[in-house]
């Protein structure tokens, strides 16, 4: 069961602003994206506090659980409840017994930030030993699908249209049709929300590709590979670490996907 869903209205606020143009100021109102501390709590124990846009938090909690290896399947998250407090939001989850025992054994305490994807790693040795998931075979991606995904996504970014301050993660069929979209001030948060939405609808991660309105950083590739997403496209550049992880994971990484142009940095055999 899922409780306490938060609406689009909670994801942004209206603030007064002085807009300057041609040397003069005009008083107006502006829609501003919100971000709040979100505590992810498993079986009564707080595991992580992330700064996130307070929307689709059930999807966020499920996606985070899957992309971080806390749960191996959506069915291992038995319940999700969103609780609002004066200083932030708690998402309380009931994690299956064996998985919770594994989580407690790791004894990881995380404090996440908008741009941070490895905050839970306590040392450089832990990062070096972190396994890279291998992705399997998927369908082929026609280059025209990238253009279709871009065009459709522009009209699906509701919060960005209001605020101009959030990233979007889109799940697209191999024909380029946009099937699911999630938004957040943090690109990896948007991806976790999307992963949760895909898993919640019992879709297969092998049946489409990810399109991000951001750069392709390490955490985007790592989280995608962890759940079996084999094709990642982004409108901006990848980082070197993202390229290396994509190469090792067998993941097709596409950057600078804008209009008819794009650059494929790893495993181009899935694109024709």
Automatic annotation (TrEMBL):
Keyword Cytoplasm belongs to the record: yes
This protein's GO CC annotations: cytoplasm
Active site per the UniProt annotation: 116 (cysteine persulfide intermediate)
Molecular function via GO: sulfur carrier activity; sulfurtransferase activity
Top-level taxon of the source organism: Bacteria
Gene3D superfamilies listed in its UniProt record: 3.10.20.10, Cytidine Deaminase, domain 2
The UniProt record lists the keyword Cytoplasm: yes
InterPro entries: Cytidine_deaminase-like, FdhD
Subcellular compartments: Cytoplasm
Pfam families: FdhD-NarQ (PF02634)
GO biological process terms, semicolon-separated: Mo-molybdopterin cofactor biosynthetic process
HAMAP family: FdhD
Family: Belongs to the FdhD family.
Protein name from the UniProt record: Sulfur carrier protein FdhD
Protein species of origin: Aromatoleum evansii
């Amino acid at each position: 069961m899922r409780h306490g869903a938060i609406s689009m209205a909670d994801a942004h606020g209206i603030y007064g602003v002085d807009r300057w143009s041609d040397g003069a100021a005009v008083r107006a109102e502006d829609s501003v994206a919100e971000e709040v501390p979100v505590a992810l709590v498993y079986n009564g124990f707080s595991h992580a506090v992330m700064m996130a846009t307070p929307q689709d938090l059930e999807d966020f909690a499920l996606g985070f659980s899957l992309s971080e290896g806390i749960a191996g399947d959506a069915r291992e998250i038995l319940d999700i409840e969103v609780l609002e407090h004066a200083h932030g939001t708690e998402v309380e989850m009931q994690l299956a017994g064996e998985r919770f025992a594994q989580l407690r054994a790791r004894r990881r305490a995380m404090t996440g930030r908008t741009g941070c994807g490895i905050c839970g790693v306590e040392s450089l040795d832990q990062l070096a030993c972190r396994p890279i998931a291998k992705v399997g075979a998927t369908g082929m991606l026609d280059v025209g699908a990238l253009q279709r995904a871009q065009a459709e996504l522009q009209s699906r970014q509701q919060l960005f249209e209001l605020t101009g301050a959030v990233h979007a993660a889109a799940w697209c069929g191999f024909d380029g049709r946009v099937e699911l979209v999630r938004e957040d001030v943090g690109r990896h948060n948007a991806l976790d929300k999307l992963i949760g939405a895909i898993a919640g609808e019992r879709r297969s991660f092998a049946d489409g590709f990810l399109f991000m309105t951001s750069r392709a950083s390490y955490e985007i590739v790592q989280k995608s590979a962890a759940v079996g997403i084999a094709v990642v496209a982004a409108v901006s550049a990848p980082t070197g670490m993202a390229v290396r992880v994509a190469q090792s994971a067998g993941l097709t990484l596409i950057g600078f996907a804008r209009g008819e142009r794009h650059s494929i940095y790893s495993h181009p055999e899935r694109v024709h």
